[in-house]
Specification:
Blueprint: E1 5-9, H1 10-20, E2 21-25, E3 28-31, E4 33-38, H2 47-54, E5 61-63, H3 67-80, E6 86-91, H4 95-98, H5 101-110, E7 114-120, E8 154-157, H6 164-176, E9 183-189, H7 190-194, E10 196-200, E11 207-208, H8 218-230, E12 234-238, H9 240-244, H10 248-258, E13 262-264, E14 279-282, H11 289-297, E15 300-304, H12 310-313, E16 323-328, H13 331-334, E17 340-343, H14 346-356, H15 364-385, H16 398-408, E18 416-420, H17 425-432, E19 441-443, H18 452-463, E20 468-474, H19 475-480, H20 484-491, E21 496-501, H21 506-514, H22 541-547, E22 551-555, H23 558-570, E23 575-580, H24 605-621
Helix pairs in contact: 1-2, 3-5, 3-18, 8-14, 10-14, 11-15, 16-17, 16-23
């Protein structure tokens, strides 16, 4: 007896199947896909647009203003949902599709799920070349969507309606699997979207999807436990996998039971309350003095849920002397740097390690010293972010603004989520932002993508509407991508956006000078080419934000900023505050070496001097400890 079927277009079947997927979150069954962001054009408006309209009650569709930005919003939503729920995005066939490439790379680097549904050219090729179609002179199967292949964890082009029956389950499996998850691209040729097929009715029945269990291999646990028992100066480095695996409580219990201090990465910040006695603060290039001092002495690092990027490892120099034990659901990340690897979920791995370490604790002098250094670092943070007097004409820098934002929270600081991505701000925020709760710190620093901030803030607010979402963004990132201010207003998702205007790319300007280079092409008023007699533009960020529908104001100093923050918190819609900041100052406390290649030959003495320092650092990292 044949199973019942229903005749649908490929686009209708796609939307119905997505709407039928469910997931269990906090004991409640909810849709896996919370909705779809769409910018329609030819290639997705006629067929997919019709299907989305028909099912808009089960699978809401929202309009955005920029394809890259709406994908950032979707990625931030998934991150704020600890990868449990996600969004899809759809674009037209040409520039709309290629606008997704940067966002797809960001999702791939950060191991975050997003479903990309770009339109594609006609499979029939009858009207070739169609509007916006790129023609490859050597390969007739290529379209611009092939740009998405290297930045997708799974890619497929749906060239026949029946193909959905295998492609969609595969795509969803990648999206929900914590070891595989990342961007998935299903390219949708516009003629195939409109073609009909008799699909099995069972394909559209509600289904609860679940991440596969990742149990730690016993032999890996035994080897890791043996290494830990032999350690005298162990440190835990907590990465994003702690938060995505909802393992913060397990990590805290493990650290307390075995007296091991914890340092955090950008993605892992918030794994442990900032004022916990075992909290060392951030580690690495933007790390705290406490974390980096202990990591320079440690004999074993237990890296939990981190991909061990260069900012975390100090370009593989910070704790190169230590034995590395990794616990990661992704085997690729677990086996980096010749680590003693545990390929498993953070919760299950920590539980198994605890059982294998029964009765063992790190030496008292080690965790006692860690507690003292951690407390000293917290005192440093309090000093750097405290209210202070300013000299006449002195501009605040990032620490002053961060302190003012946190003071404005009063007793509701644990409700705040700070969102950021690129420039100097992530380095300041990871040191200075204080959070007690997982999710209170949302900084994209795997791809360090300028333009993520405002769109990402929208995604966080959609995922966590009960929390105050504060986007901190530099003027450079704001100018790159600000369109989703209008989307936040349109959809009623309030953001507080703080624009720190240092008149250019201050962070890169500081790096440029640190490498001995001449100041060049970074700061608008100091080293950029401008029209003769014209000068750099005076950008009124508040006026611009008001033009996009937000309430906005520019403030002259920190005192005015604190009052503006009160108004922003009391507002019901998106509120933007801009303030001028110092492009030359950053927090000197903490930090470690970061490898940035300096020219081997230069006519500038300052570059030659910087090269000598770079060469000495390389020798030290690579084994010449007297360098």
């Amino acid at each position: 007896m044949s199973q019942p079927t229903i005749r649908l277009t490929m686009a209708q079947a796609l939307v119905r199947h997505l709407a039928a997927q469910q997931v269990r979150v906090a004991g409640e069954t909810v849709p896996l896909f919370a909705g779809v962001f769409a910018i329609f054009g030819h290639g997705n408006v006629a067929a997919l647009g019709e299907a989305l309209h028909e099912h808009r009650a089960a699978l809401p569709t929202w309009r955005a203003h920029n394809e890259q930005a709406m994908a950032h919003t979707a990625i931030a939503y998934a991150k704020a949902q600890a990868r449990r729920r996600m969004l899809a995005v759809t674009t037209s066939i040409g520039p709309g599709a290629t606008n997704l490439v940067t966002a797809a790379a960001l999702a791939h680097v950060n191991r975050l799920p997003v479903l990309l549904l770009p339109g594609d050219v006609f499979v029939s090729r009858a009207p070739d070349p169609v509007l916006q179609q790129m023609e490859d002179f050597a390969d007739g199967t290529v379209s611009v969507n092939d740009c998405l292949k290297p930045v997708s964890r799974y890619f497929d082009r749906i060239v026949a309606p029946a193909q959905l029956l295998t492609a969609l389950p595969r795509a969803i499996q990648v999206l929900v699997d914590p070891a595989l998850c990342g961007p998935v691209t299903l390219a949708l040729p516009q003629d195939v979207q409109a073609q009909a097929f008799d699909y099995p009715v069972a394909f559209f029945e509600p289904r609860i999807v679940a991440a596969p269990a990742s149990l730690p291999p016993p032999e890996q646990i035994a080897a890791a436990a043996e290494a830990l028992r032999a350690a005298r100066r162990p440190v835990i480095v907590a990465g994003g996998g702690v938060l995505y695996g909802e393992a913060a409580d397990a990590l805290r219990g493990f650290a307390e039971r075995h007296a091991i201090p914890i340092a955090e990465t950008q993605a892992g910040k918030g794994s442990l309350p900032f004022d916990h006695p075992l909290q060392l603060g951030p580690v690495g290039v933007c790390g705290s003095s406490a974390a980096n001092a202990l990591c320079a002495e440690t004999d074993l690092v237990l890296a939990v849920g981190t991909r061990l990027a260069d900012f975390t490892t100090g370009s593989n120099a910070l704790y190169a002397q230590a034995r590395l034990v990794t616990l990661n659901v992704n085997a690729y990340d677990a086996h980096k740097n010749s680590a003693l690897a545990i390929a498993a979920d953070a919760n299950r791995g920590l539980d198994a390690l605890t059982r294998a370490l029964t009765g063992w604790r790190a030496p008292a002098d080690w965790h006692g010293r860690a507690a003292r250094l951690g407390e000293e670092w917290r005192a440093t943070v309090a000093r750097l972010t405290a209210a202070r007097e300013f000299a006449p004409g002195e501009l605040p820098y990032e620490a002053d603004v961060i302190g003012a934002v946190q003071r404005s929270a009063a007793d509701s600081a644990d409700n705040d989520v700070v969102v950021c991505a690129a420039g100097g701000l992530p380095g300041e925020l990871i040191k200075l932002w204080r959070t007690r709760t997982p999710g209170g710190y949302h900084v994209e620093y795997g791809y360090s993508c300028m333009g993520y901030e405002i769109a990402g803030g929208l995604g966080v607010k959609m995922a966590r509407p009960e929390r105050e979402v504060i986007v901190m963004v530099g003027d450079g990132s704001y100018l790159m991508l600000n369109s989703e201010i209008a989307t936040s207003v349109m959809l009623g998702h309030k953001l507080v956006i703080v624009v720190l205007d240092n008149r250019g790319f201050g962070c890169i300007g500081r790096l440029q000078r640190a490498c001995g280079d001449a100041p060049f092409n970074n700061l608008l008023d100091e080293d950029c080419a401008t029209a003769a007699g014209g000068g750099a533009p005076a950008v009124d960020f508040a006026a611009h934000a008001r033009a996009l529908g937000a309430t906005a104001e520019h403030v002259a100093d920190i005192a005015e900023f604190e009052q503006a923050m009160k108004r922003a918190r009391a507002a019901n819609s998106t509120y933007v505050i801009s303030i001028r900041t110092d492009p030359h100052r950053s927090t000197r406390e903490g930090g470690s070496w970061w490898e940035v290649a300096v020219p081997e030959v230069s006519t500038r003495a300052s570059v030659r001097e910087a090269r000598e320092g770079y060469a000495a650092a390389l020798r030290k990292r690579d084994g010449d400890l007297e360098a």
